[in-house]
Write a structure and sequence with these properties.
Radius of gyration: 17 Å
Largest sheet: none
Helix content: over 70%
Order of helices and strands: HHHH
Shape: elongated
């Protein structure tokens, strides 16, 4: 097991658990309920969910600008997942209650990612001010 030192790295593992929980919920409760007529939405939703895990690992195991790049890409994936869920809601494919739970889980993930981005940008600015002094 890899032992992490920084708070942001520990947050990455907490975020990983949230994303994993969201992905499982989406697969079991949403994707299985989507009819094959909407296969494209099902495929794209699963792809974006799995790509979010990949981007999270990229953010956890990199530093600096590369970490920010992965985090911004993760923000984009979350927005795409949100768009796909809103399409599912618009087409009335899945029950509203099921989608609301998924939206709530996704909002938690989004807030954690945004917080991590702000923290990284602050630490980047702090390191720049120390080098300028």
């Amino acid at each position: 097991m890899i032992k992490k030192e920084k708070e942001t790295d520990n947050q990455g593992f907490t975020l990983y658990n949230k994303i994993r929980d969201f992905n499982f919920y989406v697969r079991v409760n949403i994707v299985n309920s989507i009819p094959s007529v909407y296969r494209d939405i099902r495929i794209h939703l699963l792809d974006e969910c799995y790509n979010s895990v990949s981007l999270l690992f990229g953010a956890v195991y990199n530093k600096g600008n590369i970490r920010l790049k992965y985090l911004n890409d993760l923000r984009i994936k979350i927005s795409l997942i949100d768009l796909l869920i809103s399409e599912i809601q618009e087409y009335k494919i899945v029950k509203v209650k099921t989608l609301n739970v998924a939206i709530s889980k996704l909002a938690t993930i989004k807030n954690m990612v945004y917080g991590w981005v702000i923290n990284e940008e602050k630490s980047k600015m702090n390191s720049l001010t120390f080098t300028l002094d």
